[in-house]
Design a protein that fits this description.
The strands form three sheets. Strands 16-15-14-13-7-12-11-8-17 form a nine-stranded mixed sheet, with helices on one face. Strands 3-2-1-4-5-6 form a six-stranded parallel sheet, with helices on both faces. The protein is α/β, with parallel strands linked by helices and about 400 residues long. It folds into two domains: about 120 residues, Rossmann fold; about 230 residues, Dihydrodipicolinate Reductase, domain 2, CATH 3.30.360. Helices cover about 30% and strands about 25% of the residues. It has 13 helices and 17 strands. A hairpin with a 7-residue loop joins strand 15 and strand 16. The chain binds nicotinamide-adenine-dinucleotide.
Length: about 400
């Protein structure tokens, strides 16, 4: 058995002298990360950085003292060296001790932060959505293209156990044959509280279908194997935050939607969103000419996570039901383990020089579908994707890849 992280973390071996440790020997982190934005997601990134153990926390920048204090506490509690507390983004960028910056600031700040961090030359892991509008997303991609180091965007749902398995089934095992339709569903609890409540307002999020659903549109784009051509959506603010105001602004994020997408690969896609469900449930259904795959993940209130992948092959092969999962300490570290594996891949790529994505192309096209869907709801009409692309758009820059992270 190889040395691995699982043994290293086990407290049961604390009685051993260091010279008697092999499987459980500590290995010093080879990388150092700076953190920009240390709210809910920044803290999840710190937790996972420490859990993976490949990088140390070099510094934190967040204008909210409470957020940075919570990030600091996570590092101290884990017994790691106290990180620097930067007083500006410029200071975070200039720290020669860090290899990468992990950016987890609100959506509407991403372009501005990107404009500043590209000069740092450091590797970047920037949260989704890459920006709140298509032109801004394109600008982020152009900046990423010029950047001298790795740029990764936070579409880490690709690493959820059910979707990693679904990718393997569809692309490696070819379990459903040629894909013709992709459907997804997200039914969940309302948006949570945030610093400044930015997530209740379209001007700060890009709209719910950009903010939250870019994860699902990224997966749909991936399974559809093409670029979105036409998007039609209906949706409204049916239940949540209808009486909510903050800084004299009225919450305007939609909480339910149905989205239909036609891809240039011939694949048709459908997405259902409900954000007032008393629990959380995700489904992916991929239908091909020789089989059907359904991947689902649900947490009923008070119950633990249930994962399931069904493959129906009829007379084409063995049908099966599996329950893909990660060990609980990984699954509980955030977003059902996907953030942990996002960090493993990021560290692997930094060390190996590979770039396994998701990068600018995936980030861009996921925003394009979300923004086109928001526009479709406003206009009450189908949107041709070419009409939302910026005038300067060059397709060559943003070709789909995204297959490289297949497990
Ligand atoms: N990948 C995922 O699954 C996932 C999940 C949740 C949130 N997110 C994304 O992460 C980002 C942060 O979301 P959150 O839930 O942590 O929000 P949050 O409000 O909890 O935290 C945001 C933090 O950023 C800080 N901040 C604001 N402007 C800043 C700036 N210019 N520089 C440095 N810090 C700044 C705020 O003070 C706050 O502490 C958003 O883009 C969100 O969409 C991603």
């Amino acid at each position: 058995m190889e040395k691995n992280r699982l043994f290293r973390r086990a407290r049961a071996f604390d009685y051993l002298e260091n010279e008697d440790r092999y499987l459980t020997a500590d290995e010093p982190p080879e990388l150092r990360f700076g953190f920009v934005g240390c709210g809910m997601m920044g803290q999840e990134h710190i937790r996972n950085t420490l859990l993976v153990g490949r990088a140390s926390v070099g510094g934190i920048f967040d204008p909210s003292r409470k957020s940075s204090a919570h990030g600091l506490k996570l590092v101290e509690k884990a017994g790691h060296p106290v990180p620097a507390i930067y007083t500006s983004l410029e200071e975070a960028c200039a720290d020669p001790a860090t290899d990468a910056l992990i950016v987890a600031t609100p959506n509407f700040t991403h372009l501005d932060v990107m404009q500043k961090v590209v000069g740092s030359g450091k590797a970047l892991l920037i949260e989704k959505p890459i920006a709140t509008t298509v032109p801004d997303a394109y600008e982020v991609c152009c900046l990423a293209e010029q950047h001298s180091n790795l740029v990764r965007f936070g579409l880490q749902y690709r690493y959820k156990a059910i979707y990693a398995e679904a990718m393997s089934e569809v692309f490696k095992r070819r379990s459903v044959g040629h894909v013709h339709s992709v459907n997804m569903l997200e039914h969940r609890f309302p948006f949570l509280d945030k610093v400044g409540q930015w997530n209740k307002f379209n001007a700060f999020t890009g709209g719910t279908l950009v903010e939250k659903c870019c994860h699902y549109f990224d997966l749909m784009n991936l399974f559809a194997g093409g670029a979105p051509e036409t998007v039609f959506a209906v949706g409204n603010q049916a239940v949540n935050f209808r009486d909510f105001t903050y800084d004299n602004r009225k919450a305007d994020g939609i909480d339910q939607a149905q989205v239909t997408i036609r891809y240039d690969s011939g694949v048709i896609g459908g997405f259902s969103l409900c954000m007032f469900a008393p629990g959380s449930r995700e489904d992916l259904v991929v239908c091909g000419d020789t089989g059907r795959l359904q991947a689902s993940e649900q947490t009923l209130p008070g119950a633990s996570l249930e994962n399931r992948v069904e493959v129906w092959q009829g007379e084409n092969g063995a049908s099966r039901i599996t329950t893909p999962s990660y060990p609980p300490h990984i699954s509980n570290a955030g977003h059902h383990g996907s953030t942990f594996f996002e960090h493993v891949a990021f560290a692997d790529d930094l060390v190996s020089g590979k770039n396994t994505g998701p990068g600018p192309a995936e980030g861009f096209w996921s925003v394009v579908v979300g923004a086109a869907a928001q526009q479709s709801i406003e206009k009450g009409a189908a949107i041709d994707v070419v009409d939302v692309l910026p005038a300067a758009f060059e397709n060559g820059l943003l070709q789909h890849n995204g297959m490289e992270i297949l497990p």
